[in-house]
Amino acid sequence: MNYHFLIGGNLGDRVDYLMKARQEITEKIGEIITVSKLYETAAWGYTEQPAFLNQAILLQTHLLPWEVLEKINEIEQNLGRQRHQKWYARTLDIDIIFCEQQIINLSNLTIPHPHIPERRFVLVPLAEIAKDFQHPVLRRSIEELLENCRDRLEVKPYESSTHLL
Fold it and tell me: Which of 7, 51, 101, 147 can pair with 136 through a Cys bridge, CB separation 3.0 to 4.6 Å?
């Protein structure tokens, strides 16, 4: 199965955490097919915190969505993620954005991620690697969702990201 992830963080050596996250994703979840550039983005929700680095990933795995979620939680914990409160600063956040065209609504897992259309920090990197991908619920491409997104927070390419592709 193909999954789209968004990885990000805003504490510590952000670049190093994202590199380690990609390495652990490859070791524990599956093969990374492609990645976006890194994007520096203003914090969303709780805004009084450092800027995030975010990156979209397309990967392939034989794991089922709840197995992927379990591995993601393990990777986040291994890389120092502490859950204080919603939208708080963190070393690493890994979100499952899509799992092919599946629609999953469990108590601990919602796919597609419910806030995709309202967050430029998700849509900009995702559009780089999957602009024509159709949202399975909204039936609109990532490119269309980005064009219609009302979020105006700045999302800019991170200048030092070329070595991370």
Answer: 101
